[in-house]
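JOB MANIFEST
job_type = single_chain_structure
chain_count = 1
residues = 300
[input]
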Amino acid sequence: MSLDPKNAHPQVNTRTIKTVGAMTGVRLADHFVSCTKLGRYLTFQGNGRFLISDDFHSTKVRIPKDAQAMAAMFSRDELVGRAAIMPLAQRASSLDDHRREAYEELFELIERQTLSPRVREGAAQILQAGFRETRIRELEAALGDDLNPARKRYREFLATVRMLIEKKVSSGLFIDDFVDFTTSVAGHLDFGIYSFCLDRIFATPMIPLQVKKLVAIEVLKFPSLVRRELLSNALASTAVDTTTKAFIRHAVSLHLDKEQAVQVELLEAVKCRRISPQDIENSLNRANTQAAFSRQAGRA
């Protein structure tokens, strides 16, 4: 059900632990599966916020164990995947050998199915270490070492945004810093944090329209997964003005091929709740059935 019809469906293991508590909705793990099938970054239900690595040790957010496992296996943000295995490993380290067996099986499953090489490596190291706390802390420290420089650069870029709003920096210099910021933090800053930053740029009235246009043009150059999330966010947001949205739609139609443009439109529709992921799956299934029938008819 990926937004790219040519993509193979991921092999999602849905054998999960029963979930209860805040922010689970029906099942947060099932929602993560839905995100995975659409080829999306993982979000929370309801508010649609992207997961970030901090969510797995926050006291304000509760992510059930089955959803943690899903995030470890299927997050397209490697930082989120790496963070997701930490509470699972910590929980396992506190159990006796008999009760720990279930976690050993879970970590073997994560090691086999995860989309991330770093998560696979971390799961293997935790298993080899027998869930020793010292090894878990070492992996947590390594994740922090990767995150901290990018978050420092993020704060520096926020200062540039403030300077733009206060008219202390030109549009050209702002875009130069935006490009450098994006290049510097790629793969080292949570996608959810980067996405929030872009959302605020498009939505802030004090930021000139010309800057928003230039940012949109830069986003069009991004990899398809990142591009469609960021552009559909802006198009689905009630905080973004109609002029900015009109430019984004025009730029999408001008610079992307039809299939890529449709992916953005579909994801916008999902975020606006005009269609559901199930609607997309049904549509793709019908298209595949029709294509198969046409091939058979052609051979008859």
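[summary]
Confidence is low (pLDDT under 50) at residues 5-25.
The two ends are 30 Å apart (CA to CA).
exit_status = 0
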